[in-house]
Design a protein that fits this description.
This protein is α+β, with helices and mostly antiparallel strands. It is built from 10 helices and 12 strands. Strand 1 and strand 2 form a beta hairpin. It starts with 17 loop residues before the first helix and ends in a 6-residue tail after the last helix. About 13% of the residues have low confidence. Bound molecules: ligand MTE and molybdenum atom.
């Protein structure tokens, strides 16, 4: 995300397992980038194929799910292998093309998801069971990162609204906080970058969370999520920048006032709480008027609310 890169000297020796710690300082600093650093640490590097990282756990027979005709997109779907090898998931690596090589130790099953806070019925759910009973559907959505690149992705999941309804929010609930798993032992980027406020945390207003477009995605391209896409469950709010679309969610909490969020807390003037895709509002360091399409390299104009203005503008009083 090109934010303040911690000074080189900030790289702690603890970023490495003993093999890494044995490296002398010059060699340590010469290793360009975290991917190389992790390789030196002997991290699991799955052979060749980013799709080898699909682990459906107990849910394999739930895919593929029927595709929703109501959510078609006028752009071609991004090649699956390209999407699976160009990821933002700082818990594993800050190098988008290296994330998939760093997720091998991550164990998405079994998985517990909680829904707590201002609800009448707090929930502690086994995700495998939840996926088995939810009506899954596939939706093709545009996906726009704040870094001005985009993809088109077929997600599989269910509306977050459905899960929230089961928890039965109290009238005081106005925001929904979501939190990523905190597993330093399985996440080399957490272990190696202690200056970030892990675990990753995001939030939506309750109205946004209940919006028909907002999914909890458990699959992509007709199968369960590979780890680099946020297995086994992640948020998808397609009118918002990628950073709102939090991965590998373990906890959902209903709260009364606006919660802090990861990138907004780190760099508030660059990443606002709403994170809505608005082409006329530039990022302080680059324009948001157009985007680079991953795969084709084509440059396309960015659409208001990422092309979902008709559906969501009402949320913002338009
Ligand atoms: N936990 C967590 N969730 C995250 C991120 C992250 O670093 N950690 N990065 C976000 C950003 S900036 C983007 S663009 C998307 C990328 O999703 P993808 O790799 O599945 O395309 O994940 C989002 N969710
Ligand atoms: Mo992003």
């Amino acid at each position: 995300m090109l934010i303040r890169v911690p000074p080189r000297w900030h790289l702690p020796a603890s970023a490495c397992t003993p093999e890494g710690a044995a490296l002398d300082r010059r060699r340590f600093l010469a290793l360009a980038g975290f991917g190389a650093l992790s390789a030196a640490c002997g991290r699991t590097t799955p052979a060749g194929d980013p799709l080898a990282l699909v682990d459906p756990g107990p849910t394999a027979d739930r895919y593929p799910a029927p595709r929703s005709a109501a959510h078609a997109v006028d752009r071609p779907i991004t090649d699956e292998r390209i999407a699976a090898s160009y990821n933002n998931f700082y818990e594993f690596s800050t190098d988008k093309e290296a994330v998939w090589r760093e997720v091998g130790a991550f164990r998405p099953w079994p998985w517990t998801l909680t829904v707590t806070g201002l609800v009448r019925k707090p929930l502690t759910l086994d995700l495998g069971e939840l996926v088995r009973r939810m009506p899954l559907e596939e939706r093709v959505y545009r996906f726009r990162c704040v870094e001005a690149w985009s993809m088109v992705v077929p997600w599989t999941g269910f509306p977050l609204a459905r899960l929230l309804a089961e928890a039965d929010p109290l009238p005081e609930a106005r925001f929904v906080r979501l939190i990523t798993a905190d597993r330093a032992a399985e996440m080399p980027g957490v272990k190696g970058q202690p200056w970030y406020p892990w675990p990753y945390f995001e939030a939506l207003t309750l109205a946004e969370a209940r919006h028909e477009l907002t999914l909890l995605a458990t699959g992509i391209y007709g199968h369960a999520l590979p780890r680099q896409h946020g297995a086994p469950v992640r948020l998808v709010a397609p009118w918002k920048y990628g950073y709102k679309n939090i991965k590998s969610v373990v906890a959902i909490e209903l709260v009364a006032s606006q919660p802090a969020t990861f990138w907004n807390k780190l760099v508030p003037h660059e990443y606002d709480f709403a994170g809505n895709v608005l082409p006329q509002r530039p990022h302080p360091r680059w324009s948001q008027a157009s985007e680079r399409v991953i795969g084709s390299g084509e440059r396309l104009p960015t659409l208001a609310y990422n092309g979902y203005a008709a559906e969501v503008a009402g949320l913002y009083g338009a």
